[in-house]
Amino acid sequence: MSLDMMVYALIGLALLFLIIKLLKWPLKILINGILGIILLYISNIVGSYIGFVLPINAISALVAGFLGIPGIIFLILFQFFV
Fold first, then answer.
1. Cα–Cα dist 65/49, whole Å
2. Residues contacting 29, CB < 8 A, separation 6+
3. Matching Pfam families, A to Z (predicted)?
4. Could you give the C-alpha distances from 63 to 11, 33, 56, in angstroms and in order?
């Protein structure tokens, strides 16, 4: 293996590491958003049996999407106390 092949391999590994680091944050937000929206719907289905419904609007979707499970807990507590 020649020296220039080793340099190309190191550059390739550095680029792969950089791409993974850049895509990690948007992927985490996407997964958190999907999980938050699913939990928002589940909380409405379960809550409908006891007369509790979270309104699904832009604000609640953003809170559930960005914060995930803690966002759903916040929305439920906010709905109970307001």
1. 24
2. 65, 66
3. BofA
4. 40, 9, 11
- Which residue has 């979270």 as its token pair? 54
User: 3-state SS of the chain?
Assistant: CCHHHHHHHHHHHHHHHHHHHHHHHHHHHHHHHHHHHHHHHHHHHHHCCCCCCCCCCHHHHHHHHHHCHHHHHHHHHHHHHC
Distance CA 79, CA 62 (A): 16
Q: Which residue type, as a one-letter code, is found at position 48?
A: S
pTM above 0.85, yes or no: no
| pLDDT exceeds 80 at position 3 | no
